[in-house]
Design goal:
With 95 residues, this protein is an all-alpha fold. The protein is built from 4 helices and no strands. The N and C termini lie far apart (46 Å).
């Protein structure tokens, strides 16, 4: 269970970050399912990237543990949802 806890935290906070970014950007082209799925995928990816970047003990500091997983999840979910929203918006303009 201890191996799954960071992934669960990253997925949940990624979904929250994705929904937050999509609400701020007012992207009507995306359904809620698309926002949540892109947020979860981005959250897990962002959390894993942040974990790998902070694997050096000299850099770890305050961004380790559950707080680091949560921050990585929110940022990763928000970034990927914004990218997906922009791509979907540009696809709707050309169609």
């Amino acid at each position: 269970m201890e191996a799954l806890l960071p992934i669960i935290i990253q997925a949940v906070t990624g979904a929250i970050g994705g929904l937050g970014v999509s609400a701020a950007m007012k992207q009507a082209a995306m359904s809620t399912v698309t926002k949540v799925v892109s947020g979860v995928i981005g959250g897990v990816a962002g959390g894993q990237i942040l974990t790998n970047v902070l694997s050096d003990p000299a850099v770890q500091g305050a961004m380790s543990g559950m707080f680091g997983d949560a921050v990585g999840g929110v940022v990763g979910g928000g970034v990927l949802t914004a990218i997906v929203g922009m791509v979907m918006k540009s696809m709707n303009k050309t169609a």
